[in-house]
Structure formats: C-alpha cells, structure tokens
Amino acid sequence: MASPTTQETDKLIAFQGELGAYSHMACQAKFPDMEPLSTPSFEDALAAVQQGRARLAMIPIENSTAGRVADIHILLPGSGLYIIGEHFETIRHCLLGVKGANESTLKTVKSHVQALGQCRKNLRALGIERLPFADTAGSAKHVAELGDPSVGAIASELAADVYGLDIIRKDFQDEGHNTTRFVVLSREPVAAADLAGPVMTSFTFEVRNIPAALYKALGGFATNSVNMTKLESYYESDSFTATEFYADIEGHEGMENVHRAMEELRFHTKHVNVLGTYEQERQRGR
Fold first, then answer.
1. Which of 24, 50, 77, 243 shows the greatest Cβ crowding within 10 Å of its Cβ?
2. Exactly one of 9, 39, 136, 180 is catalytic; which is it?
3. Residues 6+ apart with CB under 8 A from 176
4. What is the Cα Rg of the chain in Å?
C-alpha cells in the first residue's frame, strides 16, 4: 500500500477513540471538510501530527460536569505542538444496547470514565453497574460485538448509528448543560497578527519554591488588567514537590499589557511554556 501524500495528510485530523466518539463529532463540527483519523490514545493522536501523518489533532481538555480530562495538561507541554483553536461540543449521551435491550434487561453499562461520571445519578437510579472502558465509541463497538442485552454502553447517537445499536434513552447525562471544550493542535503556531476577534493564550508554568511565589507570579495580570479565565494546578510527577500550573488568558503577547504581565510571570517562575494563541470560539463571560 502506498504511503499517503502530503496533500492527503493535510486533509486529516486525528482524534482519540473509535469512529462515533464525541471527538469524532467535534472534528466534523469544526472542520467539516477534513477527514477524521481514529487513534487509540491521546499520545497516538498527538504523534500523528508530530510525525506528519495528520495535519491537526482534536483533543478534549475539560468538561463542564466532570472537570479536567486526565493527563492532557501533562501531555501538551511536551508534545511540541501548538494550540491553534478551540471548540465547544455539547455532549448528549445516549444509553445504548443491542436490538431488543431495554432498561430492565441492562445489568452493566460500559463507557469512558468521564461519561460514566456524567451519567452517575441516572445509572444509580436504574441500579446499573458502571464499568469503565477506554472510550465511549469503543464501548458501543464492544457492546455490539458482545450481542448481550444485559450489557449496555453510554455513547453518542452517531456511535449508535455506526455500530447498529438501539438508543434506549437519549439525553442520558445528569446535567443538561454538559459541554466539552476541545483544543486543536498543529505543528506550527498561528501568528497573533493573523487572528481576528477576541483571542486566548494558553500556557503552563512552574513557580519557584518560595513563600508567596504564586501570588507574585500572578500579580502582573491584575496590575495590567489581563483577564485570566482559567488556572489549574497539577503534578507532573509523583514527587509532590514541583507544582505546575495551566492557565488561559485573554489577549496575546503582542499586546502591551499582556507582554508586561508575561514578563513579570517569567521573572517569578522557573519556566513558562506558551502552548499557543488562538481565536476564541466562545467569548468568556464577565
């Protein structure tokens, strides 16, 4: 089989999961003219872009109900890729089963741990055991292959269509506003001058191990009127001695106030890793 040409790979966007995953849906919504490339893990999706087998990657970073997607904050800084966009996908989970299955026949339900958490109350009310699976669409594929009416899956309506499953109940998520934020990654950054409208800049940093280090590092954003919309801490290793932070701010370093704030941040931290500057898909509230 011939290797794909550069022109062909430029049309591919990688995502983690099987066809029918919510990441697949996000790819279709954001880039309807590109072809989705299914990969088994987040690392594989990033590697597809790093190695030139895909032009972009669509990666979930947080969910309005379940919070941060595990491992993403650790993977992004070391990937060598840049965030060039974002996408918000409304998550409408479906309770799925094989033909003839219903709520009374189901004993266990399989899905990604995030999806199980987002449907926890409804599953508990039905008395159904939760079994984690690698991803939502993969669980739908697995249930279709099992052919057992006692085993169901939580996945998208698209996954039900792809794998020929019955939709036992739509909108099965506990919260109606369930939304996942995705970031789009590329080998090349986007120049701030090429962006129109409100923009975001995402970065990670590590503070020095001194009293009030975080307070001093972030002070420049307050004094320079830079809106920080997100700040999360995480450990890069199991030592619990070096805390890393992930942050989103409005604006870019070409703006004088943002430049001053980032200068002050760099003075008070061990390192700063700018992940990318990109247009906001959804303007943040004030």
1. 24
2. 180
3. none
4. 21
192-279 has the same fold as 6-90+179-186: no
Active site residue 241: no
Q: For residue 130, what are its two tokens?
A: 């939760």
In order of 36, 57, 181, 244, 282, the CA distances from 231 in angstroms are 31, 23, 15, 10, 18
Binned at pLDDT 50, 70 and 90, residue 7 comes out as low
- Does domain 94-169 correspond to CATH entry 3.40.190.10? yes
The H or E element spanning position 25 is helix 22-30
Nearest-angstrom CA–CA distance, 206 and 265: 10
Residue type, 21: A
- End-to-end, the C-alpha distance of the chain in Å comes to 54
CATH match of 192-279 with 3.30.70.270: no
SS3 at position 118: helix
The predicted pLDDT at position 1 comes to 42
Token representation of residue 135: 């991803």
pLDDT in tens, 122-151: 999 999 999 999 889 999 999 999 999 999
Query: Domain 6-90+179-186 belongs to what topology?
Result: D-Maltodextrin-Binding Protein; domain 2 (3.40.190)
Catalytic residue among 31, 133, 182, 205: 182
Residue 180 appears among annotated catalytic residues: yes
Mean pLDDT, the chain, integer? 92
- What are φ and ψ of residue 131, in 5° steps? -125, 115
25-39, 189-203, 232-246: the lowest-pLDDT one: 232-246
pLDDT in tens, 70-97: 788 889 999 999 999 999 999 999 999 9
